[in-house]
Specification:
The protein is built from three helices and nine strands, in the order αββαβββββββα. By secondary structure, the protein is mainly β. Strand 8 and strand 9 form a beta hairpin. The longest helix has 10 residues.
Length: 147
């Protein structure tokens, strides 16, 4: 799938601020979907932010531009209210991690069952620890709430 990203989307640079570049993406009309996964990803549009020195994805905000039907809508539908948002931060030199993840699914399955699901995850307060930290020392840190 990652190999196909340049074919699935059209990209347009919006602006740069310091080391960060905002890039808009939208479905490439000439891309031909081969499976359900392609159909969902190809229907997405949004903005991503790249940290240029490291060529790292820092933020992604995407939504479905139109509903995606499976089996002519009988098997399922994902509505255009479906969205994905994530943020990644460098927590130590060269170490990047996802600090925010928000997913909203809106759709239905088999014409009858509505699905609406939200995932909202935030992670913060990363602190370096000694590289030779033992399991017992790590457990003591966690138990003490000193992190």
């Amino acid at each position: 799938m990652l190999r196909d990203i340049p074919n699935i989307f059209l990209f347009r640079s919006l602006d740069s601020v310091g080391d960060y570049t905002r890039i808009a993406f939208q479905p490439n009309p000439s891309f031909r979907e081969e499976n359900y996964q392609d159909r969902v990803v190809h229907a997405m549009a949004g903005v991503l932010i790249i940290h240029e020195p490291d060529m790292r994805l820092c933020e992604l905000d995407a939504h479905l531009e139109h509903k995606v039907e499976f089996g002519f809508g009988i098997l399922g539908v994902l509505r255009d209210k479906t969205s994905l948002s994530l943020a990644r931060e460098e927590v130590s030199a060269g170490q990047w991690t996802t600090t925010k993840l928000r997913v909203h699914l809106d759709g239905s399955i088999l014409l009858l069952k509505s699905i609406s699901s939200d995932v909202d995850s935030l992670r913060y307060g990363f602190k370096p620890v000694a590289p030779d930290l033992t399991v017992a020392e790590a457990a003591a840190i966690v138990r003490s709430n000193a992190f």
